Amino acid sequence: MARLTQDELLNLIIQWVRENGQTGEFPDQKITAETDLMAAGLLDSFGFIDLVLFLEAQCGARINLAEVDPGEFTVVMGLCNIALAGMEPDPLQPPDDLAFAGAQPFSD
Amino acid sequence: MARGILSYECESNPLAAVFAYRSLTAYAGVLGILAAGKGYVPLNPRFPVERSRRMLQLSGCRVVVAGKEVLARLPELLNGAENKLTVLLPDGDEGTLPEEYPQHRFVSGAEMPAGDGLSEPIVAADAIAYLLFTSGSTGLPKGVPIQQSNVCSYVDYTCQRYAVTEADRFSQEFDQTFDLSVHDMFVCWERGASLFCIPERSVMAPAKFIRDNALTMWFSVPSVIGALARLRLLSANCFPSLRYSLFCGEPLPAKYAEAWQEAAPGSVVENLYGPTEATIAITNYRWDKARSPGECVNGIVPIGWIFEGQSARAITPELKAATAGEAGELCLSGSQVTRGYWNDGERSKTQFVRLTDDPEDARHWYRTGDLVRQDERGCLFYVGRTDHQVKIRGHRVELQEIEEVIRKACGSAQVVSVPWPVRNGSGDGVVAFVSGLESLDQGQVMEYCSDFLPDYMVPKRIYLLGEMPLNVNGKIDRQKLVQLLEG
Question: Does A88 contact B at CB distance below 8 Å?
């Protein structure tokens, strides 16, 4: 999978929010890198989870929200940077197929 | 706050409203109204304004405590408000509101009187502590008044059951318009513990918040577990500080209880159940990782045993006691159960009844509309809503049975089925919705269902959704699913 640039990722997020966010009340609302998606009422918490899972699927990143301040990841640029970090190979982690399941997902 | 309410309240009204959201004023407003000897009516800025205005009108409130976070929405609420209102803005400035709305009175923080000399109010046990509105079948919100004695009964029992101390650190997940917030606030404050209001953006993914604040008491809807799992935020012992983890508001899948227990191994996990009319929760089931999986029915954790001092019965449509193991409508009675609906005698008569099989029993029982089975031990098992027990082509069908088979077939716990299409109150078939998966092989799932279910119970269609639609209280909104089909 080709690695996305920051600009491509920003566009991907903004496009997804335009198509799936709650823009009904303000269809012309401007969405920029600085927009806080939840404070602006564009996404609720469920919509935000959908966005994170979409980004993971699109860019092959593992977006780790475990230690990130919510004030950071609900802003477009903040989420973009977290996704970019998730695309970097972590030198401390073994490859996925050998990884110990520290944060084991379960299918819900 | 209490002094302000008493100073500006021109009429002797038993209720005052709080229009605020997860702010200091939201909590101070609740406490101030109670300290003024009144009951509180929470309004939610996330609700459609028409609904809030209706709630304000139905409650008859003349005083509204408003937080600065809702100032922008205040004009919408005031437009068309029928009563002359006094709006207290303890942390805000009235700006141009007095000119725009001369019919109402506005009191800014600077104008609020000092609280010196305020004495503890003398409040009758049957005075209203809070008035909440739930959705009503007639289209109008339905007011449920909860008395001081109802709340005291719940808080006393719960504080004792969970041995709450001032060292405890409580989560505050629920909006104040959801009665489970009363547990967060008053069980916590009763013992001088600390309350941690979870910011809206963390409500469905609160893992970091729990760890950062070393919470000891957790209370949420089960859906939060599913959301955390999807984001891979549940791992073994990731919540070591929790002593108790309580879930309420919707059925708790066994899979969720297991996952949470692993994430919080030092915590007691309990499934609570209770309608608003019975004050927060009235039954509980303690999860035991060895015993409980065998006690779950259709993959759902039992709702357990009635609280000590309260009464529960499963009844038949003839208002007689159901036998052990027989499904019946759950009826509740006791000090936690309210006496009836707000200004709605007719509906109260229908829902608050006397049972016919025991003439000596003078108690009034609240008919929950929830279908349960009770085993020989007294343990209650939630089966569904009485109105979700359906007939499909003449056959009696419990939708949860279908849902459990689909859960097993597709590996997702988030499954809802509805009778569809429905003609003359009877369904021609069943349609199911699944979420929590990236893809779904519909044919494979239906084939699996055919192996376990008679043909009239096999879904005709299975839709994969990104998320289940939820109502304002975070429960799965079945009506919206039906609307999707109708649309």
Answer: no
